[in-house]
Design a protein that fits this description.
Elements: H1 2-24, H2 28-36, E1 41-45, E2 53-56, E3 61-63, H3 64-67, E4 74-79, H4 86-101, E5 109-114, H5 122-131, E6 138-142, H6 145-154, E7 168-172, E8 179-183, H7 188-201
Parallel strand pairs: 4-5, 5-6
Antiparallel strand pairs: 1-8, 2-3, 2-6, 4-7, 7-8
Length: 203
């Protein structure tokens, strides 16, 4: 029995140490998710967006639901500019995707919504967008804390605070069509395949 007791104690010690490390490093969850690189999981979902104002990275205040219903296929992800794990990967994915679109990039609307609106001003979002060479078709949005939470809740990605968010991408072929939810980290080629599949079939 002694070896079993020793193993159990060792596991408890490891758990305590990991918990302490997570508390010391608020971005540990993000790095853990990024390191896991789990296979992307897909599901088709219906999303009802509330009419809420957001501020685009160019400083213009817009109705978010109207903004993404401009007739183009749309891809949505959730980021914040000081994130060190999940968000850089998600934003790099969008950057690679827009490059793969080539001359057709302006026919697609890429949307990144900040989940840290208190810190992410339009100016900070513009700097963040430049970091990933975002084209004119890729907009970043911020706004009030309440609006941010409501939009996250509508997409079922709200996890209580920015440190707990997960990598999720949404793709929709056209206004009124279902959304494809992609949990995890697809490759840019896989994301392009999702986009092409949905637009070819009309969503």
């Amino acid at each position: 029995m002694k070896p079993r007791v020793v193993v159990m104690c060792f596991a408890l010690i490891l758990g305590t140490t990991a918990g302490a490390a997570d508390e010391a490093d608020p971005h540990a969850h993000h790095r853990h998710m990024a390191e896991q690189k789990q296979t992307a999981r897909r599901s088709d979902v219906t999303i009802e967006l509330p009419q809420l104002k957001q501020i685009r990275d160019d400083g213009k205040t817009v109705q978010f639901a109207t903004e993404i219903d401009d007739g183009r296929p749309v891809l949505v992800n959730f980021i914040y500019t000081t994130c060190t794990g999940i968000c850089p990967i998600s934003s790099s994915l969008f950057a690679q995707f827009q490059n793969k679109l080539g001359a057709n990039r302006d026919k697609v609307h890429l949307v990144s919504v900040s989940i840290d609106p208190e810190e992410d001003t339009p100016a900070r979002l513009r700097d963040y967008a430049k970091r990933y060479k975002a084209g004119l078709e890729w907009n970043h949005y911020t706004g009030s804390a309440d609006a941010s939470i409501a939009i996250q809740a509508a997409f079922n990605v709200y996890r209580g605070n920015k440190m707990s968010h997960d990598p999720v991408t949404f793709v929709r072929a056209a206004p009124g069509k279902p959304w494809r939810r992609i949990d995890g980290f697809p490759t840019a080629s896989e994301l392009l395949q999702d986009y092409q599949e949905l637009t070819a079939s009309g969503g």
